[in-house]
Automatic annotation (TrEMBL):
CDD domains, per database record: AdoMet_MTases
Highest taxon of the lineage: Bacteria
Organism name: Flavobacterium nitrogenifigens
Name of the molecule in the record: Uncharacterized protein
Location of the PG-1098 ferredoxin-like domain: 272-314
Segments forming domain THUMP-like: 315-385
C-alpha cells in the first residue's frame, strides 16, 4: 500500500515480467516476488476486471486466481438472474461475483477458506465502496452449521479436486461436494445457484442434482465460460435451458424446454448459412433452433442451418457463394492453393488434414464449411461472412 510501490505497479502494468524479474528490486524492504505478482495480476485484470483495474489501492491475488475468477461481464449477467434480501457465497474467491450480487441484494456474506484472500477481498471492497458485504474467513460449512439464519440464495462455485483427472468430471468430484450436501443446504435456503466450469456435461450435472428449474449456459465473445444450475427446494417442473452469448454491443439469447420434442426441418443448402453460437452448441438445442427460427438443418448431425431469406440469428451468418462436392477435381478447381477460413461439421477429415492435403492457407475473406448434407453427401460450402 505504499504510494510509491503502487505507482511502480501501475507504471509497469503490461511489462515483460521475465525481464522485470532480472532487474534490481527498487524497494529492498519489500518482497520483490510479491511486487512482480501484483504487476502480473493487474495486467491480467485490465480487460477482464476494468472496475478493479481503474480503482485505487487494489490488492490482487495470484495471477492464476485472476485468470480463474469470473469476468465482470459474466458476473454482471449472472447478477441479473437473481435478487433478494440476502445471499451467502460459500466459495467467495476474489469476490467479483459478489461485487455484482451486492447491487441486487441487501446483504451479502462472502465466505473464503483462504484467510489472506478473504482479507484482500474485504480491503478491495472498501476501495470499491461496497458496504453491504460481510466476510467470513474459514470453512463455510462451519458458518452454516453455527447460524440459524436462512438466506434467500446460496451461491456456490465448487472447485475441482486436484486428484480429479480427465476431461469428464462430476460435481461429486468437486469441493464442496454439492450433491452430497444439497439437503443440508436446503435447510439454509430454498434457492441455490451453482456455477460450474463449461467442461461439465449438462446431462452429468442433471444426473447428480435435483429440483433443477433453469440451466444457464454463458458464453463471452463466443467462448463458453460457465454453466449455472438454478435449483429451488420442492421444484419438480420442466427444466428451461437458457443460453447467453455476451458480445461487445449485444447479448444473444436463446432458450428452450429441455426434453420437449422438436420437429426440425431439413433441406439442401439455400442462399444463407447459419452457425449457432457456442452457448447454443453447448446446450445441445440443435433441433430446437431449427424449430424456433423455422430454418432448415443441413443434416441431423451437422448442426448447420440454411434459409432462402436472411434472418437475425444468434450466431455467425454467411452468404453461400458456391456449393461443391468434396471431390478431387472440384477441390483442385475451387480451393487448392488458395486462402480460406475452414470449419468442419460432421466431416471425416480434420481442418489440419484438409489444409495440408489441398495446400489451403489460413485467413482471407472466404469461409469454407466442410460438412455432410441431408443426402449424406460430403460437400463444401464456399461462403462470405455477413457482419
Amino acid at each position: 500500500m505504499h504510494p510509491e510501490i503502487q505507482e511502480f505497479i501501475k507504471e509497469n502494468t503490461g511489462a515483460d515480467i521475465t525481464k522485470l524479474a532480472l532487474q534490481k528490486n527498487p524497494f529492498p524492504e519489500m518482497d520483490w516476488i510479491l511486487i512482480l505478482n501484483q504487476i502480473e495480476a493487474r495486467s491480467k485484470a485490465k480487460e477482464k476486471l476494468p472496475t478493479w483495474f481503474t480503482a485505487e489501492n487494489i490488492i490482487y491475488p495470484s495471477k492464476i486466481s485472476v485468470e480463474q475468477t469470473s469476468s465482470e461481464k459474466t458476473a454482471t449477467y449472472k447478477a441479473s438472474l437473481i435478487s433478494g434480501e440476502s445471499l451467502i457465497d460459500l466459495t467467495g474467491g476474489f469476490g467479483v461475483d459478489d461485487y455484482y450480487f451486492s447491487k441486487k441484494f441487501k446483504s451479502i456474506t462472502h465466505c473464503e477458506i483462504n484467510e489472506q484472500l478473504s482479507e484482500t477481498v474485504a480491503h478491495n471492497f472498501k476501495q470499491l465502496q461496497v458496504e453491504n458485504c460481510t466476510f467470513y474467513a474459514g470453512d463455510s460449512m462451519h458458518l452454516l452449521e453455527e447460524i440459524k439464519q436462512k438466506y434467500d440464495w446460496i451461491y456456490i462455485d465448487p472447485s475441482r479436486r486436484n486428484d480429479s483427472k480427465g476431461k469428464v468430471f462430476m460435481l461429486k468430484d468437486c469441493l464442496p461436494n454439492v450433491p452430497e450436501l444439497l439437503d443440508f443446504y436446503f435447510e439454509k435456503s430454498d434457492s441455490i445457484l451453482i456455477k460450474t466450469a463449461p467442461l461439465l456435461d449438462i446431462s452429468a450435472g442433471l444426473s447428480e442434482l435435483k429440483n433443477v428449474k433453469n440451466i444457464h449456459v454463458i458464453a463471452l465473445e463466443n467462448e463458453v465460460k460457465e454453466l449455472l444450475f438454478e435449483i429451488h427446494k420442492e421444484y419438480s417442473g420442466k427444466i428451461t435451458l437458457k443460453t447467453a452469448n455476451i458480445l461487445k454491443e449485444k447479448t444473444e439469447t436463446f432458450e428452450f424446454i429441455l426434453g420437449e420434442e422438436s420437429f426440425p426441418i431439413y433441406n439442401l443448402p439455400q442462399q444463407y448459412l447459419y452457425e449457432p453460437n457456442s452457448a447454443i452448441m453447448k446446450s445441445g438445442g440443435f433441433d430446437e433452433i431449427s424449430t424456433a427460427f423455422q430454418i432448415n438443418k443441413l443434416h441431423k448431425h451437422s448442426h448447420l442451418y440454411t434459409s432462402e431469406d436472411l434472418i437475425d440469428f444468434p450466431g455467425r451468418k454467411f452468404e453461400i457463394q458456391k456449393v461443391i462436392s468434396y471431390h478431387k477435381n472440384e477441390m483442385k478447381n475451387e480451393l487448392a492453393n488458395k486462402q480460406a477460413n475452414i470449419t468442419t461439421r460432421n466431416f471425416p477429415e480434420t481442418v489440419e488434414n484438409i489444409r495440408k492435403k489441398w495446400k489451403i492457407k489460413n485467413g482471407g475473406n472466404l469461409y469454407c464449411f466442410f460438412t455432410t448434407d441431408v443426402k449424406d453427401n460430403k460437400i463444401v460450402l464456399i461462403c462470405t461472412k455477413i457482419i
